[in-house]
């Protein structure tokens, strides 16, 4: 019961946040909607029993990446200077003719029909009935897996982070005259 | 009842929102937000399939590496955005037409 309520709230958060990122005009509001969506996804991880992934999602994404995005928005002129270009539709002319849109609509209907009525039932048939895994701690097993099976990817990711750090510092340094 | 399909539907919605943001927005920072949404959708798929299909923890390792790569990508991408703003005084994507300043 509690799991169902948590699932519903998290799903609502993530979906509404994603729709808000698409629909809002202000880029700062888009950042806050992305924050909401990421928190919702962390709640979905909790309903799936992935506690360590949820904690990492909260710490790294919500605490790091979104703050970085907000810094970038503020360093590039703030939210006021970017309010008017939501989709840029006013600047570009309309592409194609009426026939283009009719063909696009028909192909979209066909593709959604194939996906919904042909592909999705096969996906849903494939799931096993017994899907309740006991909610035990995953941190210990994930730590063991990280240093045994996936140790190469672990080390490579440390090199990747070092490269990203140095690269970001080199790219963003002020211009030398 | 919560099944695999509910997670897949949510992941599809996140993915489609990210694709729409990446295609339709003209702001470079907004495009980076769309990339974050897409990466989240894929990580959610990994964890959902781990619970409902094979139940080993390899599907929990992949979201960790996705988060690592997303953090590195956000750092470098935002550095590029800030550098671009210093050069062009704009972060409109249509202004990015040349590789060298």
CATH topology of the largest domain in chain A: Four Helix Bundle (Hemerythrin (Met), subunit A)
Give the count of helical stretches of chain B.
Answer: 3
Overall strand count of chain A: 0
Report the uncertain regions of chain A: none
Task: State the separation between the terminal residues of chain A, measured CA to CA.
Answer: 64 Å
Task: Determine the structural class of chain A based on helices, strands and strand pairing.
Answer: mainly alpha
What best-fitting shape of chain A do the alpha-carbon axes yield? extended
Question: What characterizes the major β-sheet of chain A?
Answer: none
* Biggest chain-to-chain interface with counts: A-B, 74 and 63 residues
- Separation, N- and C-terminal Cα atoms of chain B: 56 Å
Helix content of chain B: over 70%
Number of domains of chain A: 3
CATH domain topology of chain B? Helix Hairpins
The multimeric state of the shown protein is: heterodimer
Helix/strand structural class of chain B: mainly alpha
Would you write up a description of this structure?
By secondary structure, chain A is mostly helical. Chain A folds into three domains: 1-82, Up-down Bundle (Four Helix Bundle (Hemerythrin (Met), subunit A)), CATH 1.20.120.1200; 96-125; 137-177. Chain A is 72% helix and 0% strand. Chain A is built from six helices and no strands. The N and C termini of chain A lie far apart (64 Å). The mean pLDDT of chain A is 82. Chain B has 101 residues and is mainly α. Chain B has one domain (4-95): Orthogonal Bundle (Helix Hairpins). Chain B is 78% helix and 0% strand. Chain B has three helices and no strands. Chain B has helices at 4-24, 28-54, 58-88. In chain B, helix 1 (4-24) packs antiparallel against helix 2 and helix 2 packs antiparallel against helix 3. The radius of gyration of chain B is 17 Å and the shape is elongated. The interface between A and B is large, with 74 and 63 residues.
């Amino acid at each position: 019961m509690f799991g169902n309520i948590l699932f519903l709230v998290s799903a609502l958060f993530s979906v509404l946040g994603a729709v808000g990122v698409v629909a809002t005009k202000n880029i700062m509001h888009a950042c806050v909607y992305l924050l909401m969506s990421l928190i919702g996804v962390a709640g979905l991880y909790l309903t799936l029993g992935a506690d360590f992934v949820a904690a990492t999602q909260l710490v790294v994404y919500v605490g790091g990446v979104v703050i970085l995005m907000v810094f970038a928005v503020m360093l590039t002129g703030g939210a006021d200077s970017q309010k008017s270009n939501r989709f840029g539709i006013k600047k570009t002319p309309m592409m194609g003719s009426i026939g283009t849109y009719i063909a696009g609509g028909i192909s979209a209907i066909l593709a959604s029909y194939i996906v919904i009525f042909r592909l999705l039932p096969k996906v849903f048939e494939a799931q096993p009935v017994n899907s309740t895994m006991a909610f035990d701690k995953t941190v210990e097993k994930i730590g063991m897996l990280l240093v045994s099976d996936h140790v190469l990817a672990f080390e490579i990711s440390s090199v990747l982070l070092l490269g990203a750090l140095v690269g970001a510092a080199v790219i963003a340094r002020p211009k030398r005259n | 009842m919560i099944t695999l399909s509910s997670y897949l539907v949510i992941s599809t919605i996140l993915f489609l929102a990210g694709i729409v943001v990446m295609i339709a927005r003209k702001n470079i920072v907004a495009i980076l937000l769309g990339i974050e949404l897409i990466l989240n959708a894929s990580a959610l798929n990994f964890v959902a399939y781990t619970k409902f299909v094979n139940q080993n923890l390899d599907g929990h390792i992949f979201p960790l590496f996705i988060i690592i790569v997303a953090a590195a990508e956000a750092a470098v991408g935002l550095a590029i955005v800030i550098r671009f703003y210093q050069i062009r005084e704009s972060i409109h994507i249509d202004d990015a037409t040349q590789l060298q300043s």
